[in-house]
Amino acid sequence: MSQKETWRTRKYWSQTGGLLIEEFLAVNGSKTVGRRPIDGVIVLNEETRVHDGNFYDIEGKDVIVIQTKSNRIGMYLLGQAYFSQFLINKFNPRSIKSIAICGKYDDVIGQLAKDHGIEVVVISESEYEEKFDDPAYIRNNRTFNKT
Question: Is residue 30 one of the residues assigned to a domain?
Fold first, then answer.
């Protein structure tokens, strides 16, 4: 995740709670398969913390899948948010909610997202909070449970 995306994902997570796994590795890379990290996965009904690692057993759990971009929502972000659900589904969570976080809304793409079950969350640059980039904040909210 880029620096302009990370704080947005963390800000959204701070409002929902649960365990945040940043850069959740949905697909390991190989010679014939690209590595597929997802910007964020929130495991609901878990302790509100940032997980120390990029994988967590989500079988039977309620999850929120997050893809984040700093710009206006477009086809690229919408595609990521839509297909991330299918990548995560192989881990057998109980439920999946897909969120596209962006810096600005677009009426056409926003309606497409809604029509396909993707929630668009706009977090503009003016909503920036430095604490979500502060290593001390993350350190204080980190869990070292590597399940």
Answer: no
